[in-house]
Amino acid sequence: MEYVKSHIREVKDFPTPGILFYDLTTAFKDPRALHIIGWDLSQLYRDKGITKVVGIESRGFIGGSILAFELGAGFIPARKPGKLPADVIRKDYGKEYGKDIIEIHRDAITPDDVVLIHDDVLATGGTMKAAYELVKSLNPKKIYINFIIELSALEGRKVLPDDVDITSLLKY
Ligand code: AMP
Question: Is 148 helix (H, G, I), strand (E, B) or coil?
Fold first, then answer.
C-alpha cells in the first residue's frame, strides 16, 4: 500500500481553495499501482456473492469496472443528471465542495442482487449516502460500500448507515 500511496498526487486548493485533492490519476497510470489497487479491492469481496457493482461518476467508474470484472459481476453507472438514456431514479445531495444530483436506471438492480457500491474517495459521505439511498430504494438482497481512499478527518462514515459493511484501501 505504501507503493500505491506514493503514487497518489496531493493537489492543494483544487477544485476550490482549502481542499486538498487526492489525485488518483497518477496511481492509475502506473501499471503496478493500478494492479495493486484492482487486486486488493477485489480480494475484499471475492466470497461475498456480489452480482452488481455500482460505480459513481466519474472517478468511481475506474475502480468499479475493475471490481465488476474481477468479481464476475455486472457494472452499473451512477451518473450526473441527464446522462442516462432510459427511466431513472435520482437523488440531490451535498458534497465536500458543492451540491450535485445522482441518477441510476430504475431497472439497474433487482431484489435478487447483492450490490457493491464503489467510489474513489470518501470525503463528507454525501455522494455515497445518495448512491446508497438510490440503490436501497430498489430493494437488493444486500449492499456493500467500498472506497479506495477514506479521508478519516471528515468523518464521512458517520453519515452512512451503521449496519452496512464499509471498506477503504487507504486511510488519510
Ligand atoms: P463527498 O460526497 O464529500 O464524500 O465527496 C466524495 C466525492 O467527491 C467523490 O466522488 C470524490 O471523487 C470527490 N472528492 C471529494 N473530496 C475529495 C478530495 N479531497 N480529493 C479527491 N476527491 C474528492
Answer: strand
Grid coordinates in use for 137?
430504494
Judge whether 155 counts as a catalytic residue: no
Separation between Cα atoms, residue 69 and residue 96, nearest integer Å: 30
pTM: 0.97
Which of the following is catalytic: 9, 46, 57, 59?
59
- Which of 21, 99, 121 is the best mutation target for the ligand 1 pocket, counting ligand atoms within 8 Å of the beta carbon and taking the most? 121
79 is catalytic: no
Amino acid at 22: Y
Whole-angstrom distance, CA of residue 144 vs CA of residue 48: 9
User: Position 166: which residue type?
Assistant: I
Does any ligand 1 atom lie closer than 6 A to the CB of residue 19? yes
List the grid coordinates of 54: 455500482
Residue 5, all three cell numbers: 500511496
Spatial separation of the C-alpha atoms in residues 146 and 167, rounded to whole Å: 5
Atom of ligand 1 nearest to the CA of 59: 12
Binding site membership of 91 for ligand 1 (Cβ less than 6 Å): no
Digit-coded pLDDT (tens) for 56-84: 999 999 999 999 999 999 999 999 999 99
